[in-house]
Specification:
This protein is an alpha/beta fold. The protein is built from 20 helices and 9 strands. Helix 3 links the parallel strand 1 and strand 2. Helix 8 crosses helix 15.
Length: about 475
Amino acid sequence: MFRCLIASVALTTIFVWFPLVGIAACSFLLLAQVALIAIRISAWRQSQRPAATFGQCADPFFSVHVATYNEPPDMVIQTLRALAAQNWPRERFEVIVIDNNTSNPALWKPIENFCAKLGDGFTFLHRENVSGAKAGALNIALEHSRVDATHIVTVDADYCVFPEFLSLAREALASSGADYIQFPQAYRMSTENAVGVDAELEEYFRTNITTADCAEAMLLTGTLSVLSRQALIASGGWSGSTTTEDAELGLRLCRNGYIGRFIATVVGQGLLPLSLNDLEHQRYRWASGNIATLMLHARDLCLPGGPLRGHQRIAICSQLTAWANLSFLPATVLLIGLLTHLVSQPLLMLSAAIILLSLLEICSRIMRRGAVANRSRQVILSAISCRLALAPVSAVATMDAVLAKRTPFNVTNKSTELLAPLCDEPVAQLFLALAATFALSAAWSAGPLVFCAVLALILPLPAALLTRRQLRDYRSVVTCEVNGATA
């Protein structure tokens, strides 16, 4: 965050001395914000699913890969139990658990012992000094998969799949003729205790992924993905070039002409992040990794020609910018300008317009999905609160990615024992709200547009407090479940 702040303050100083430069820069950001909205609207208008093309997938062999790093053993064992209970012939699938870089044997030894207890078909691998984070681990699992495996399946360490998971995967592959399929992410115990967080996350799958499926440009989302082994290897395997190796691979699959399908059937449930801090770290990784992927493949997405068609490029850009937020620099310009009275009025107006457009997009996306899903007003407001609470970290992640800052792959903590008492304090939101409050009096005299934009900068704080409360309720229920399972 400090790198972004320093860069934004430096740019604001330049804008003070050279107002035309500031107006040009903020005009570009305003056009970019409008372009993001236009991309999503254009993607939504193509929402007509292509007809199924029946394929040849009568008897697939699934190699299921579970990557772990510093995970709670009991949680991973629960995931393995679910995989062992599949109503799919045991001789037609294998499970490879790849633990990478976990230094504490107390975390991975119980998993190794449980795999040995499950017997043939369950392999445990422990490797140290693995590069490429999760992508590196998955490539190791790919190397150790059986030579007759036709499809690679990725399952996160916290996901308990339903017994019919592999059977449904086989049916989906056969009925769609797809080279890869993606099932939606879902979370256990979330609809009772963290419904707003659940609804906010669900919006991506039911809008961005669904519309991308219609454009035959669906990207992967990491877990519950089923890929043709041939397509995976032909596309170069997993890459650790960004922190969203799933989306990056999905883009390469699309570029190489492979067809993916989104199967809107819940086949397993994982765990939500257990604190606001963990949710913010997850969102940072998604936002920065996807923007980095966008920049890495900018040539394929922006330049004319190439294997991707126009509607595919729009759908891919819509997915990769789903978590982006362009408000960091405009917010800095607005607050510094109001507190110092050094920034010109046109620049204040442009910054305010960008912030309000971002707020409008956040609210409209969640409300649109809520209306389609017939959600209650309370759920919609809770989902909007969650998206607003994460707006500051999304803005930081977006700017970090644009500044080409290389960020490490941070695994989302799913252990109740590793949570610090104050780990979910909304520090960034509080700082932003205090700065905006001090600027309110100056904003009133600057006009209604600027005043409304400053009010919008206060909203992430109450939104974060509401989201934190939801996650604390959720965490207490998860803790009770874990204690009950290990008693």
